Amino acid sequence: NVHAAALAKAHRFDEQTSAFAQDAIEGLSQFPKRLSPKYFYDATGSELFEQITVLPEYYPTRTELGILHDRAGEIASIIPGGAALVEFGAGATTKVRLLLNQCALSAYVPVDISGDFLKAQADALRRDFPALSVYPVTADFTAPFALPDAVRQVPKVGFFPGSTLGNFEPHEASAFMRSAREILGQGAQMVIGVDLEKDERVLYDAYNDAAGVTARFNLNVMVRINRELGGNFDTGAFIHRAIYNRDRHRIEMHLISKKAQSVRVLGRSFSFRPGETIHTESSYKYSLDRFTALARGSGWTPVESWTDADGMFSVHALVA
Ligand code: AVJ
């Protein structure tokens, strides 16, 4: 996208903002319009997501924490002593702390695009686990990155909780699993949290919460475009809607235009018909079989799967 690149240069955008500009302009130029969910997570978006995780309707976080808590001993028993835990897309450290309490890990390598947050979390962990070496890596974990030299010789365990995998299209999910296997190396293990298909009503409510936090989280991507890319979205002129697409096994989040309007972003104009949507997120839901097939197809062997009593969420151990 030459136009966006030239604009990014003219605006002296940093690398991350340039990528955002490019993706936003490209996505808003398509039909249906779309924006990547990875742009939800500015400071406000990350805070709103933390609020989502404790909503009564949003079952994934507390269910996964329950599984990790109840099964920490079993998970620990398949992780070799002295291993380095590599977390893809590290946010809050609540989940990894459950494993650190049970496993004799030598190192923790949180990998995230947001460097500042990463460093603050790393400092807190070093304080609480003085024997643990923490090597934060600032990188987009969906692209290949190098592990720190210090963990080259120790066994590696990947950690990818939260069903973040669900944000990937099926082909991207396979590509990610393959790339993680490449990065972690032969013999590595992986502990991954995957949200499961379930009653449509439960899914609907989890993404259309009564308090409207998910709506604010979704609309915040427009606020971010306004601030970082000089956009003029009127967030009051769009509504949040999440729907379950049963054929494709995914929740879709949309921002729907209440009226005919046009919006300017980086000097370009994008017009909306009444009811026209921007597709902002897909959150894929798996069956245990569809996930293990995906894992097998991308170079991993499933070792064990754990779910909660209601079969809402799953945690899988894999070996490369
Ligand atoms: C962080 C991608 C797992 O899909 O449930 C929460 C993001 N979106 N509510 C999810 C999200 C709306 C979340 N993931």
Automatic annotation (TrEMBL):
<feature type="domain" description="Histidine-specific methyltransferase SAM-dependent">
    <location>
        <begin position="20"/>
        <end position="318"/>
    </location>
</feature>
<protein>
    <submittedName>
        <fullName>L-histidine N(Alpha)-methyltransferase</fullName>
        <ecNumber>2.1.1.44</ecNumber>
    </submittedName>
</protein>
<dbReference type="GO" id="GO:0052706">
    <property type="term" value="F:L-histidine N(alpha)-methyltransferase activity"/>
</dbReference>
<keyword id="KW-0808">Transferase</keyword>
<dbReference type="GO" id="GO:0032259">
    <property type="term" value="P:methylation"/>
</dbReference>
<keyword id="KW-0489">Methyltransferase</keyword>
<dbReference type="InterPro" id="IPR051128">
    <property type="entry name" value="EgtD_Methyltrsf_superfamily"/>
</dbReference>
<dbReference type="InterPro" id="IPR019257">
    <property type="entry name" value="MeTrfase_dom"/>
</dbReference>
<dbReference type="Pfam" id="PF10017">
    <property type="entry name" value="Methyltransf_33"/>
</dbReference>
<dbReference type="InterPro" id="IPR029063">
    <property type="entry name" value="SAM-dependent_MTases_sf"/>
</dbReference>
<dbReference type="InterPro" id="IPR017804">
    <property type="entry name" value="MeTrfase_EgtD-like"/>
</dbReference>
<dbReference type="InterPro" id="IPR035094">
    <property type="entry name" value="EgtD"/>
</dbReference>
